[in-house]
Write a structure and sequence with these properties.
By secondary structure, the protein is an alpha/beta fold. Helices cover about 40% and strands about 20% of the residues. Strands 3-2-1-4-5-6-11-9-10 form a 9-stranded mixed beta sheet. It has a two-stranded antiparallel ribbon with strand order 7-8. Bound molecules: beta-D-ribofuranose and calcium ion. The site of beta-D-ribofuranose (BDR) has 15 residues, from helix 1, helix 7 and helix 12.
């Protein structure tokens, strides 16, 4: 089993990632850390708690609250894309479910306690990870692998023409992380990998929604708003960048092509804020990341379907 911490902004595919982390036998999910991103911070915490509850694992994995805004900028969310991130479901958060230890302290403590053991899957803006780098000079070297969903490989954005959401929201944090010297930093991009390999058109999406399990029903709740939005802007299906990022860590055979790049993020310009420049070997600059260039979408879809078909007894009745 691979020891993992998921750092996330829980809505839509972040929920799917948490399900994967809780239920994939290859994953030893140690903690869930929360960062400002997709939807309001409190709502994200509720979404995370509901996700753990649907898996029947409420209270088994700690949830730590992290940065409620980017390092230097105002928070910008994606409620136009995700709605509230869980299709209007609600749950009262039981007392004690949310840890008193903050996300950055929890990340630093976990990694320092077991140097070279813990992998982090960061699928929201990189604020918490940047703060951990600033708090502990050994943090980056002590993380086994850092898997990031963010940026595009010199390609299209989604929140602006130039920028993918996670890098756009906190570009300074992304650059701190890219400069931090992580031994094994891997990036799954929006363009091309998400758009080409892990976006599932409506008939396949419907199949995932109709498996007759609590997880499948929950999946439909959390993803309906996003597929509607995406189809309205020309993206042909349900997008799964976050959960595919964790899957690539747990099942490396899903990565069909990858290469070393020097990745930097635009922080100065307003026009291209959050744009990820990915320089390949021709440019002779020292690489700082491995960028996935192609993922096995068919094999990933099969995994996702098997995950959502898993019977669970939810800890709380949500629907
Ligand atoms: C990223 O932004 C979020 O909306 C998704 O969860 C994903 O992490 C895609 O740009
Ligand atoms: Ca996310």
């Amino acid at each position: 089993m691979i020891p993992v911490i998921i750092d996330n902004d829980t809505a839509q595919d972040d929920c799917v990632t948490i399900l994967e982390g809780l239920l994939d036998p290859a994953c030893d999910l140690r903690a869930i850390t929360m960062v400002a991103g997709n939807v309001g911070f409190e709502r994200q915490v509720e979404n995370a708690a509901m996700t753990v509850a649907v898996a029947g694992k409420l209270g088994e994995v700690p949830i730590h609250l992290g940065a409620s805004k980017p390092l230097t900028r105002e928070w910008e969310g994606a409620e136009d894309v995700h709605g509230d991130g869980s299709g209007g479901l609600h749950m009262d958060i039981p007392e004690g479910l949310v840890s008193e230890v903050g996300a950055v302290d929890a990340l630093c403590a976990a990694v320092a306690a077991e140097p070279g053991v813990i992998s982090i899957v960061a699928i929201g803006p990189l604020t918490n990870i940047a703060l951990a780098v600033q708090q502990d000079p050994d943090f980056a070297v002590n993380v086994k692998s850092l898997y990031v969903m963010g940026g595009s490989n010199n390609g299209r954005g989604n929140i602006t023409p130039a920028a993918e959401f996670n890098f756009y929201v906190d570009p300074e944090a992304a650059q701190i992380v890219l400069d931090a010297g992580f031994a094994d930093l891997r990036i799954l991009t929006w363009d091309p990998v998400t758009l080409r390999d892990v976006t599932f058109p409506r008939p396949r999406y419907d199949e995932l929604c109709q498996l007759g399990t609590p997880l499948s029903r929950f999946f439909k709740h959390v993803c309906d708003a996003t597929i509607d939005y995406d189809e309205s802007v020309g993206v042909n299906g349900s997008t799964h960048p976050d959960s595919a990022t964790l899957a690539c860590l747990l099942h490396p055979e899903l990565v069909l092509e990858q290469a070393r790049y020097r990745v930097d993020v635009e922080c100065a310009s307003d026009l291209t804020r959050g744009y990820s420049v990915m320089a390949w070997d021709k440019f002779d600059c020292a690489p700082n990341a491995t960028v996935f260039e192609r993922v096995d979408g068919e094999a990933y879809y099969a995994r996702l379907k098997a995950l959502l078909a898993t019977p669970t007894t939810p800890s709380v009745e949500l629907f």
